[in-house]
Design a protein that fits this description.
By secondary structure, the protein is α+β, with helices and mostly antiparallel strands. The protein is 18% helix and 39% strand. It folds into two domains: 56 residues; 332 residues, TolB, C-terminal domain (Neuraminidase, 6 Propeller).
Length: 398
């Protein structure tokens, strides 16, 4: 009996240690280790391992899921080939599989611009607005698998695109793209799925939004929490949070009042960014005022007044002597890694910009680079998703 209990405890401990190692490792490294270790390979090839790992990581950000940046310099309208920069080895050539993906799709950033929508390793890009003034098309890709799908424009005049993903339990990931337009107190949405309706946009759905000022507009990117899309919206009167459930076609509004509402007045779209907590349950709001970045967290009240503030970045911690600027742009939020990508604009259009990452969990600032003006450089962060790296070992290796 004692031997049996000892064996059971050892087994449980081994799995616990394995999950902890996996939670602290990047997926690529873990798969490489598994290829050289039969016991590790057997455990992570087990269909039950992947859900347990997701559950283990559900209550905190995992910085190691951040992989790096897509970079494409466009000096003097001379477009250089795109590349991928690994933060651990920034001076080395693009690692695989990014190198092969960019070789096959070297013009992707010439025609598509980061919509800053990403989920589980997928990235959505937005095409140039047609000269006819219609809605732009989009492109969804996964550089880890080589998947690429160019999607035609929706019927509505989309102000924002949302990428919704679902896991079938076998490590595969299915997605839907939602186009959204807010006008006259109604949210118009259209859905696109690559496996439904012969890959066509579905009919327009209209959802009442109240209260909603006539000039209210969606500020993209949207934040997806527990399957619902959430936008920060602005109007000439006030800002508010709009939560949309596509499953029920229902929308709810939370007006932002009080000190937080006053703080948002006059702020440009690039100075505001919705982020989540580590559990992906509640929206939080980043606000850049000059060179200071603050995090606003809502309470459980519904009156819009219950917001508390924490200063995450002080001006002296990021001031750059040769970048004479007092303006920050909050560019991107990684829902899994917890990183925020920030640009400090140069003093004028021809000045260098400074790019850095803010790690929400530790409030640390990590320098990325100094680069050309915004219109001369594509700089797009990328984080992996757990659903795309579950390894498939051959019978001989198992």
């Amino acid at each position: 009996m004692e031997a049996s209990m000892s064996s059971l405890s050892s087994s449980v401990l081994q799995m616990d240690v394995l999950l902890e190692i996996s939670a602290r490792s990047d997926p690529v490294t873990l798969v490489r280790c598994a290829a050289a270790c039969k016991d590790l390979r057997r455990e992570i090839a087990n269909p039950a391992f992947h859900p347990r790992l997701r559950l283990r990581r559900a209550d905190r950000f995992m910085p190691r899921l951040f992989r790096g940046w897509f970079v494409q310099n466009q000096p003097n309208k001379v477009i250089e080939p795109p590349s991928f920069s690994d933060p651990v080895r920034p001076t080395e050539p693009s690692p695989e599989p990014f190198r092969s993906f960019l070789l096959d799709n070297d013009s992707i950033f010439e025609f598509y611009h980061p919509e800053l929508a990403a989920s589980r390793g997928l990235v959505a890009l937005r095409s140039n607005t047609p000269e006819s003034g219609g809605s732009p098309g989009t492109c969804v890709f996964n550089p880890m698998t080589g998947y690429l799908n160019c999607i035609p424009p929706p019927t509505i005049n989309a102000q924002s695109f949302v990428l919704l993903t679902s896991d079938d339990g076998d490590g595969a990931c299915h997605y839907r793209q939602v186009a959204a337009e807010l006008a006259s107190g109604r949210l118009k949405t259209q859905e696109f799925s690559p496996v439904d309706d012969n890959s066509r946009w579905q009919p327009i759905a209209k959802t009442a939004v109240a209260p909603c000022p006539q000039d209210a507009a969606l500020l993209h990117p949207a934040l997806v929490l527990q399957g619902d899309a959430q936008w920060l919206c602005r109007s000439s009167e006030y800002h508010f949070l709009l939560r949309f459930s596509r499953a029920q076609l229902q929308a709810s509004v939370t007006k932002i009042d009080g000190i937080c509402g006053e703080q948002l007045r006059g702020r440009g779209p690039g100075e505001l960014l919705l982020v989540s907590d580590g559990q992906g349950k509640k929206p939080r709001l980043l606000v850049a005022v000059g060179l200071q970045i603050s995090l606003w967290t809502s309470s459980d009240t519904d009156d819009g007044n219950g917001w508390s503030m924490q200063v995450l970045v002080e001006p002296e911690s990021i001031h750059q002597g040769d970048v004479l600027s007092e303006r920050l742009e909050l560019r991107w939020f990684g829902e899994k890694s917890g990183f925020v990508f920030v640009r400090m604009a140069g003093a004028n259009e021809s000045s260098l910009s400074w790019y850095f990452m803010l790690e929400l969990a530790t409030r640390r600032v990590r320098a990325v680079c100094k680069g050309p003006p915004e219109n001369a450089l594509v700089y797009f962060p990328y984080e992996m998703g757990l659903s795309f790296w579950r390894p498939k070992f051959t019978r001989q290796l198992q």
